[in-house]
Write a structure and sequence with these properties.
3 strands, mainly alpha, globular, three-stranded antiparallel beta sheet
């Protein structure tokens, strides 16, 4: 139960900071983070055909990057972390738990691939050569994100489309704890990083909870809405690394919160 309370309260905090509701957060994922992730996955799925430098550049392009004007949009890595936040939190909602088995199986597959990708990006961000990641995969007899990328792409889209639909249910509730009672635990959860338990038999569970809690906190720390440079925030017309001229944040290529680079045009 302690794990449920911890994860759910952190979900409420993170969702509250990023969207008005879990359903709204899921819609943001569907409209912006999913396309960003799929675009990157479509390239990495062809990694066997890329040179070492191309693989390196592909991973570097997915990492967060602060520009000279302090612009720091949501990176591909950030989008993957935001998707993981949604999957980690949504599993505590009753309508998600009661979803069909086919959905559950696809969700677990998607989650494992996203987690593997996030772990790899962490390694690259801290200095590991991307090419060595692929060498290790082939040594272990693993394929690059599955044999059939088209199927993975379809499953990924289907999972997050269904997730948004499920969370849009007006009767959204947490299955193991009433939302109000869980909110009352927020301050305690934030101030106590899983205090020591007098019962030695619980030490292993507490250790696991602490690890998962730290991992989830690290997602949230790096998965906030992108930081937009002041000059771009006030712009009537702007340029991003993906679009020459923009006047609206509606499309992913123009969204200032997701742009790695942003320059005020007017």
């Amino acid at each position: 139960m302690k794990r449920v309370i911890f994860f759910f309260t952190v979900m409420l905090i993170s969702w509250g900071a990023l969207a008005d509701s879990p359903a709204q957060y899921a819609l943001q994922i569907l409209e912006k983070d999913l396309p960003s992730g799929l675009h990157w996955f479509s390239k990495i799925a062809q990694s066997d055909e890329l040179s070492q430098s191309e693989v390196y550049n592909l991973y570097q392009s997915a990492l967060p990057e602060i520009q000279a004007n302090k612009q720091q949009g949501v990176s591909v890595k950030g989008s993957i972390e935001r998707m993981l936040i949604l999957l980690d939190g949504a599993r505590y909602f009753e309508q998600v738990q009661k979803a069909p088995l086919d959905f559950q199986n696809k969700k677990e597959l998607v989650n494992s691939v996203l987690q593997m990708t996030k772990d790899e990006m962490d390694l690259v961000q801290y200095g590991k050569d991307p090419e060595k990641l692929f060498e290790e995969r082939h040594t272990q007899g693993l394929q690059t994100y599955g044999v059939d990328f088209a199927k993975f792409s379809s499953d990924l889209t289907e999972v997050f489309t269904d997730m948004q639909r499920l969370l849009s249910n007006t009767e959204t509730v947490a299955s193991e704890e009433n939302i109000d009672s869980q909110i009352q635990n927020v301050n305690q959860v934030q101030s106590e990083d899983f205090p020591e338990d007098n019962n030695a038999d619980n030490s292993e569970d507490l250790s696991e909870e602490s690890f998962e809690g730290q991992r989830l906190k690290s997602y949230i720390d790096s998965a906030e809405v992108g930081k937009v440079a002041d000059e771009c925030l006030s712009a009537e017309m702007w340029q991003t690394d993906a679009a020459e001229s923009c006047q609206s944040d509606d499309s992913l290529v123009c969204d200032r919160s997701y742009a790695r680079q942003c320059k005020k045009l007017q």
